[in-house]
Amino acid sequence: MTICRRMFSTSRSILSHDNPLGLPRSGTPPSFPRRRGLPQKRTIRDVKKVVAVSSAKGGVGKSTVAVNLALAFARRGIKTGILDTDIFGPSIPTLLNLSGEPRLDENNCLVPLTNYGLKSMSMGYLLPQTQSDSPTGEVPMDTTPITWRGLMVTKAMHQLLHSVSWGPLDVLVLDLPPGTGDVQLTINQEVIIDGAVIVTTPQDIALRDAVRGFGMFQRMDVPVLGMVRNMAYFACPNCGHQTRIFSHGEGHQSHCEDHGVVAECKRLGVDFLGDIPLDAQVCEDADRGKPTMVAEENVEKSVRRQAFLDVAEQVANKIGLDWH
Length: 324
Hints:
It is built from eleven helices and ten strands.
């Protein structure tokens, strides 16, 4: 565990620049022990189940779905954590309204930050924190880019997977970054994943990448639990009429089961887990760090909250979690 101290030290000298892993910037490349074959897959310490949430494409609301899925588990008494594996664009700190530097436990492992009863870890917690100089106290957006090559990303991902002190968890949700690259391959080589949830929108351009994500999990022998169609429809707040904004044309409006996401699920042999409505309130709740599962906890007959609960229940049943 001493390597955790070297890589994720809490000292200002390490966290105040863009190389928290301490790799040399110039000169002779660092040497690493040579391995024969692929790393041995293993479970994450104290974690019973691992669920990956993926889209293989940015901008479809995957992180919002992932955090609401995790919060839905937690609201049913399931001990849950969420790991933000997007090294370059971490979203979980904003979604959970969390910031600050994680402390280290007695084994020099990172202690997760918690809000709304959900444990979380993200690269965003390990980066320099932006300070506010505004009279209103508003914190400006951070402009510091994370400019790492593949080796540094892989090493950071290894530490986030194996050097976090989660404590006993029934399930850990992995919020995967867009694409099918280094992070996804590292996770597959390092840990056993019990299932993957693929998030898409009704548009063909998003669905095509989602299908590529399915192919990635298939090659990695990770069971795909199903697909979620985000931003599926807009429900009128006055009459409740549903309008499918991202439809495939006039001829398909009344036959949505025969094309698009549902049809692709049938072709691939995976379950369609459900629709998440397109609603400005979901976006506003996420931006202010209070996701729908929390923001509408006391709202009777919340269509938005129920949509996330329905998806979460199906996922829980598929991986053997006690949903009650």
